[in-house]
Amino acid sequence: MKGAGELSKRQKRILEMIEAYMAEWGYPPTIREIGDAVGISSTSVVSYNLKVLQRKGYLERSPEVSRGLRLMREEEEEQPAASRALTIPLLGTIAAGEPIPVPDSDFSPTDYEEIAVPPDLVSNPEGVYALQVKGDSMIDALIHDGDIVILRHQRTAENGDMVAAWIKDERSTTLKRFYRERGQPLVRLQPANPYMEPIYVHPANLEIHGKVIGVIRRLD
Prior knowledge:
Arc Repressor Mutant, subunit A; Umud Fragment, subunit A; 2 domains; elongated
């Protein structure tokens, strides 16, 4: 850690936490995760110390992005852009259980936040977005309530793909594995939970809105 003697003990702990977190996960922590790790309950206090670290040249920060931190080290200054974390929109929630009805509303592109994702998870952010999972129907696929799934927008699916499925007549969306079985008129949306039943939908009543390409685990 360069020239850390000019920092307070709290700022050193924050910087060490960010370095350790990024070494383990490949992307930066949120302000709340930093506070929890170093024992600061106020997000405004964490934010103040991040501003100090930014002013002293230890990191770059994008306040409008949820995980918009980047450590300023000599090796990172020479790091190719392709190896840095990318940001994608977090568009809301998706049901991993019973489908979630979507209320009628006017959606504005400014209504969503952005999250940072590691480059080994998303190499090209075009058409990629995130949704936070609500429910436990995909727990055997290691996706739990509160996790964030990363999806690439597409309208088609192969058997076994985990997809964001829009059920038209119910105006609802759900996270399930897609199966179209030969000779069967209905599509099976299969949960990954032995205690939950599959959902059967006619193809004309179904739209695929994306395929899951990664998961960001919620940390308790």
